[in-house]
Amino acid sequence: MVINRLDGINPLQDKQAAQRSQNKYSVRDTADSINLSDEARELAEAYYASQVAKETPDVRADKIAEIKEKIKDPSYINSAVIDTVANRIMDAYGI
Question: So where are the chain's domains?
Fold first, then answer.
C-alpha cells in the first residue's frame, strides 16, 4: 500500500509563506526618525566647540602687532588705559 501526501504537514504553511513574501516587498508608510536626548545634544555641542578650539590658532598675530604699535606710542600709556586694563584683569579672575 502506497500513501501519497496530499497536503503539507502544517496546513497554514502555504498561507504563512505567502504573507512573508508580501511583507518582504511591502513599503513602509512611516519615515525613519531619530530622537536625541538633551545629554547627547550637550555632548555634541561640547565636541563641536572642542574641535573649533583645536582648529583656532592660540596666538592672533594681527592683535599682537597692533598692541606693539600702541605701546610704542608714549601717549598711549596713561592712567586711564592702566585703570581699564587692571579692571579687565580683575574681571577675568572674578576679583
Answer: 60-95
